[in-house]
Automatic annotation (TrEMBL):
<dbReference type="Pfam" id="PF13487">
    <property type="entry name" value="HD_5"/>
</dbReference>
<dbReference type="InterPro" id="IPR029016">
    <property type="entry name" value="GAF-like_dom_sf"/>
</dbReference>
<dbReference type="InterPro" id="IPR037522">
    <property type="entry name" value="HD_GYP_dom"/>
</dbReference>
<dbReference type="InterPro" id="IPR003607">
    <property type="entry name" value="HD/PDEase_dom"/>
</dbReference>
<dbReference type="InterPro" id="IPR003018">
    <property type="entry name" value="GAF"/>
</dbReference>
<dbReference type="Pfam" id="PF01590">
    <property type="entry name" value="GAF"/>
</dbReference>
<protein>
    <submittedName>
        <fullName>HD domain-containing phosphohydrolase</fullName>
    </submittedName>
</protein>
<dbReference type="InterPro" id="IPR052020">
    <property type="entry name" value="Cyclic_di-GMP/3'3'-cGAMP_PDE"/>
</dbReference>
<feature type="domain" description="HD-GYP">
    <location>
        <begin position="186"/>
        <end position="383"/>
    </location>
</feature>
């Protein structure tokens, strides 16, 4: 049972205050493409506009016949059947719902019993006033709904004014969420294509798709550990699977050779970095521009003895330095056509020796700090037997 403090009463927003809230959130939402962040801003805007204790933004999942929310103030992610609760009723009928007191309302008594009141029993929270309003996309199709809970003014009930104001927010929400969903779909499509291309490169050398997944996860973890901003770490995670895309142009006789390569064969193998870079360098997309850097520089060494350009120290882009250690760790920790996987202690000793030689010392330090998490990733994405 949760212990809820008695909330302090507030006042409805004056027209100038309401306009200020709407303009403030409209500016924030217009600059946001991440769906989760858009939903949080929407919930915050709705909560302030109608002066409610809580506000949930529900989205319709037509494939599963469910409503879901990652943004429910005070609650974690939720999924409910479309047939359940007031949110489901609102989305199915397209009509807003007003309830002054959930425990005395007769019209929606059965619906409430299966939703809000059941949750109250679990949490100790007291649901009283409710306002639920659907929102639509540009084609007029219902995408989900706002659900405001408990009016925080002296009246303790939602008004027609609240309905109008939240309807305004709902109208803007549908269009903004639709844009965020489209951006998310485009990003997921890009990510899928990049992973597929990365897997193609690795499959030429008989690697599994899990190699690129592990390298992506390692790179992401190391980037965050180095203090790289979340957005940039996300880009690196999406781009790093392309590090070996240039292998598509390397002959099978070199890629599949079980023994040590001759000097001539190794020179051929090294060209995969330049090939990958040339494949990607002309793109204006940030993900592919990052992938071009990673493809070219992941075999450069901190001491300047790497390839293809012999870059040294911070001449090597941080994305290349990160992917270098992620790729080497996974290569050594995995069976390859030319060797068996190394024991962990042997890999760690090598990394200590190569700190400041092959690898950026700062990246090596973060690698050791994150080692428990790195090993979890290795196990989660282990190759099939």
């Amino acid at each position: 049972m949760y212990d809820f403090e008695q909330p302090r009463l507030k006042k409805d927003l004056e027209p100038e205050e309401l306009l200020g809230v709407i303009l403030d959130y409209a500016a924030k939402i217009a600059n946001e493409r991440n769906l989760d962040n858009v939903l949080m801003l929407m919930a915050d805007m709705g909560k302030q506009i109608v002066v409610s204790d809580r506000c949930t933004v529900w989205l319709l999942d037509t494939q599963k016949g469910e409503l879901w929310s990652k943004v429910a103030h005070g609650i974690s992610e939720l999924r409910i059947p479309l047939e359940a609760g007031l949110a489901g009723h609102c989305v199915r009928t397209g009509e807003p719902i007003f309830i002054d007191d959930a425990y005395t309302n007769l019209v929606f008594r059965d619906v409430l019993a299966s939703g809000a009141l059941h949750t109250d029993q679990l949490t100790g929270y007291r649901t009283k006033a409710l306002l639920v309003i659907p929102f639509r996309n540009n084609e007029g199709q219902i995408m989900g709904c706002y659900q405001a809970v408990n009016k925080m003014t002296e009246s303790e009930v939602f008004s027609e004014r609240d309905l109008r104001n939240l309807s305004l927010a709902a109208s803007y929400s549908g269009k903004s969420i639709e844009s965020a969903l489209l951006a998310q779909e485009i990003e997921e499509t890009q990510r899928e294509i990049i992973f597929t291309m990365g897997e193609i490169g690795e499959s030429r050398s008989k690697e599994t798709g899990n190699h690129v997944k592990r390298v992506a996860e390692y790179s992401y973890l190391l980037a965050l550990g180095l203090g790289i901003p979340q957005a940039e770490a996300d880009i690196l995670k999406m781009a790093s699977p392309m590090h070996d895309i240039g292998k598509v142009a390397i002959p099978d006789s070199v890629l599949e050779k079980p023994g040590k390569l001759t000097d001539e064969e190794f020179d051929i193998m090294k060209t995969h970095t330049e090939i990958g870079y040339n494949l990607l360098k002309n793109s204006n997309r940030r993900i592919l521009k990052t992938a071009a850097i990673v493809a070219e520089q992941h075999h450069e060494k901190w001491n300047g003895k790497g390839y293809p350009r012999g870059l040294k120290g911070e001449e090597i882009h941080i994305h290349g330095r990160i992917t270098a250690i992620a790729d080497v760790f996974d290569a050594l920790a995995s069976d390859r056509v030319y060797k068996k996987a190394w024991e962990l202690d042997r890999i760690l000793n090598l990394f200590k020796e190569e700190r400041g030689e092959h690898f950026d010392p700062a990246v090596v330090d973060v690698f050791f700090e994150q080692l428990p998490n790195i090993l979890k990733i290795r196990d989660r994405f282990s190759d099939p037997l």
